[in-house]
Amino acid sequence: MPEPRTPKTPAVDPDRDPLLIDAEADDEQVQRQPPIRHKPWLLLLGLVLVALNLRPSLSSMAPVLGQVSDGLGLSAAQAGLLTTLPVLCLGLFAPLAPMLARRLGSERVVLGILATLALGIVLRSVLGTTGLFLGSLVAGASIGIIGVLLPGIVKRDFPQHAGTLTGVYTMALCLGAAVAAGATVPLAHALGDNWAPALGFWMLPAVLAMLVWLPQARNGHGVHKVAYRVRGLWRDPLAWQVTLYMGLQSSLAYIVFGWLPSILIGRGLSPTQAGLVLSGSVIMQLVSSLAAPWLATRGRDQRLAIVVVMLVTLCGLFGCLYAPLSGLWGWAVLLGLGQGGTFALALTLIVLRSRDAHVAANLSSMAQGVGYTLASMGPFAVGLVHDLTGGWNALGWVFAVLGAGAIVFGLGAGRALHVQVTSEKV
């Protein structure tokens, strides 16, 4: 890997986790604390179960969005807002995670936020239109907070296997999304063609995760005493390139989560078939989410990998939108491979562009907070365009603009450089 802009600064290990919320690994006081090793298999099982719950409340809505809209009289713009709201909350509430963890401890926060996630899922199913939007807000906020905390726990408690277990975490996240996308419509049919209990069903995995996670909340590290302030990040062009790449590729991802089944239903598929196509596409992300970062870190920089995975994503999107339905599964597979790579590379860039854990934590917070807020505009734009045009064909322009922007900022973010900041204890 070429020398960074500051030659005296050591390069960051590609396997370092970008989502650390504190500086435990680099502070002597925290290093003296032993990692949690009581029943590590139970901790690992808890991590997997928590990760499995970070996407079902998002991906379960898309296959039944038409039924929800018809049942509650939602316009396409309102449906677009419904798919936008939880993604917006991912960005808006992510900055709360470090503050809550420093005050209460990461493990206790995860347990409490799992409870709010389950509550949000229930609210979507029982209070009509008000509950639908309120529950989506609560669920999105919960996912935004847990999503920042979980990889930091992986890095702290499994330091020798952080890269591998982060991959396992990412795979569990994708698996949860795929299962919810494929199973929600059959559940609705089994429950009397009623979408409400089918959406509410995904509260049960969250409750199971709470029960398994409870020992970690009792035995966790507790309140962290040391924090670092990083200065200059918001003025650094490279940091903004990483952030905008994260946001634009995420925008395409949440368009797929929120609207792909509706697009395919509009092209003639049944809701069950459309949900299965989305589920199959997400499952393919398991492959590229592991392979893409490994391959990208073997090259001189990540620019070529970023262009390749984004072009593969756009090919899959245009194929699903315009190509004959006879080849739909091939385009869905291509889409999944591309999007798994773009997401995994976005996380990898946060690590590679940071010179230490303190900078990585702050760059991660910036990339998630701003990036996911930006990403939320994509699903809303799709609903608005559909409302204005009465169809799906014009969405090709939305895909093209977002994809081209991701490539432009990805070419900047993919250079083998470090963000230029200073950090100090506070």
Kindly describe this structure.
The protein is an all-alpha fold. It has a single domain (24-425), classed as Growth Hormone, Chain: A. 73% of the residues lie in helices and 2% in strands. It has helices at residues 28-31, 40-52, 56-59, 65-72, 76-93, 96-104, 106-126, 128-157, 162-190, 195-200, 203-219, 237-266, 271-296, 303-322, 328-352, 357-375, 377-389, 395-413, and strands at residues 228-231, 422-425. The chain has a two-stranded antiparallel ribbon with strand order 1-2. Helix 8 runs antiparallel to helix 9 (162-190). The chain crosses the membrane at residues 41-58, 78-97, 109-127, 133-154, 166-189, 195-217, 238-260, 272-292, 304-325, 331-352, 359-382, 394-417. Pfam families: MFS_1. This is Cyanate transporter. Keywords: Membrane, Transmembrane, Transmembrane helix.
Question: What's this model, at a glance?
Answer:
The chain has 426 residues and is mostly helical.
Query: How many β-strand runs?
Result: 2
Taken as a percent bin, the fraction of beta residues is under 5%
The mean pLDDT is 81
- Give the count of structural domains: 1
State the CATH superfamily name: MFS general substrate transporter like domains
Question: What's the CATH first level?
Answer: Mainly Alpha
**Poorly predicted tracts of residues:** 1-37
Question: Architecture in CATH?
Answer: Up-down Bundle
Describe the sheet with the most strands.
2 strands, antiparallel
CATH topology name: Growth Hormone, Chain: A
What topology, given as strand order, has the largest sheet? 1-2
List the total number of helices. 18
The proportion of residues forming helix, as a percent range, comes to over 70%
Helix and strand content put the structural class at mainly alpha
Q: Give the CA-based shape.
A: globular
Secondary-structure element order, as H and E?
HHHHHHHHHHHEHHHHHHHE
For the terminal residues, how far apart are their CA atoms? 33 Å
Return Rg in Å. 21 Å
